[in-house]
Amino acid sequence: MKKLSTLLVFICLMAMVSNSTALAQASCVGTATLNVTINTCVTGELVKATALLQGAYSTGGQMQVSSGFFNQIPLTQPYQSAPWGYGGSESIASRPANMIDWVLLEVYNAADTSLLETKAALLLNNGSIVDVSYISNPTVGGVYFQSVVANSAYYLVVRHRNHMAIISRTTVTLPNAGAYNFTNFNNVMGGAPQVANMGSGYYALLAGDYSANGIISVVDYNGYAQLPLPPPNSYVDNDFNLDANVTTADFNLYRPNSSAIGMPAIRY
Ligand SMILES: [Ca+2]
Ligand SMILES: [Ca+2]
Fold first, then answer.
1. What's the pLDDT tens digit per position in 73-112?
2. How many angstroms separate the Cα of 242 from the Cα of each of 7, 186, 191, 246?
3. Considering every ligand atom, which ligand is closest to the CA of 213?
4. I need a labelling partner for 161 at 20 to 30 A (CA). Which of 2, 69, 111, 219 fits?
5. How many CA atoms are closer than 13 Å to the CA of 212, on its beta-carbon side?
6. How far is residue 10's CA from residue 248's CA, in Å, rounded to a whole number?
7. pLDDT in tens, 160-211
8. Which letter, b or e, does each residue of 109-120 get, where b requires 16 or more Cβ atoms within 10 Å of its Cβ?
9. Centroid of ligand 2 to alpha carbon of 22 (angstroms)
């Protein structure tokens, strides 16, 4: 029986197995049931980054969303459609209480700032960007990338549905022990004009890029102002302050940002 149990554990290393029933050998008496649960192995290099969203910013480097919005956050990553066209299968069984929204974390090649790999990830209220495996392992602290070559340097990019994307000022050697801090404008390519000054030394992605193309313009105003208005408690891209409603509060976030232009390498 012990030998059979050991064998079962070995052959199930890469799979999720539950409630397996093991039959005893003919010479043994009776049967036994094994309940074996083995988590899918997470592989790749762990990339750590911290960023804030202007629309969800609270105070002291923290973000907050309304319960109405929180309950509308989809369980599957929302970046399938244009302009992202990201087909990743990231999903969660439930929302962690400190989740703000989904973001995309991307790794770009150092030589030509071309895209290497994209991952959808959870943005937490303290700005941490974490893998979907955070649900089962809250200590994960970053996002796993499969194409990253360890101890090599890359640019990092953070994208959000309706905030202007940003790219790291310099390359980052991955995996990185400490999170790359996008809340400091000195770490953002293009500097202070690329982010919103939230006070107390904190900077956040600029709200209002409805089209998510890396430029905040009248196109985004038209996205904000489109009719009909969505019903209350909707997860929509013209809700810039993430309160699940489209109101003048969203326009007031857009207006001062309406001439911002993102870095060419990451515009759509
Ligand atoms: Ca835009
Ligand atoms: Ca809103």
1. 999 999 999 999 999 999 999 999 999 999 999 999 999 9
2. 50, 26, 25, 9
3. 1
4. 111
5. 18
6. 58
7. 999 999 999 999 999 999 999 999 999 999 999 999 999 999 999 999 999 9
8. bbeebeeebbbb
9. 55
Report the candidate in 74, 72, 104, 109 with the shortest Cα–Cα distance to residue 88. Answer: 104
Long-range CB contacts for residues 167-173, cutoff 8 Å, separation at least 24 = 167/108, 167/113, 167/263, 167/265, 167/266, 171/110
**Percent of residues, the chain, with pLDDT higher than 70:** 85
- Global pTM value: 0.85
For the segment 109-168, what is each residue's pLDDT rounded down to a tens digit?
999 999 999 999 999 999 999 999 999 999 999 999 999 999 999 999 999 999 999 999
CA of 255 to the centre of ligand 2 (A): 14
Cα 216 to ligand 2 centroid, rounded to whole Å = 17
**262 CA to middle of ligand 1, Å?**
10
What spacing in Å lies between the alpha carbon of 20 and ligand 2's midpoint? 48
Distance from Cα 242 to the centre of ligand 2, integer Å? 5
Nearest ligand (C-alpha, residue 220): 1
Residues 124 and 245 in one domain: yes
Q: Do 82 and 170 reside in the same domain of the chain?
A: yes
Q: Find the ligand nearest to 240 CA.
A: 2
The verdict on 183 and 217 lying in the same domain is yes
Which ligand is the nearest neighbour of the Cα of 83? 1
Tell me the CA–centroid distance for residue 220 and ligand 1, in Å: 5
| Amino acid, single-letter form, for residue 157 | V
Q: Is there a single domain that holds both residue 149 and residue 212?
A: yes
Residues 52 and 26 in one domain: no
Amino acid, res. 155: Y
What's the 222 CA to ligand 1 centre distance in angstroms? Answer: 10
The answer to whether position 188 is within a domain reads yes
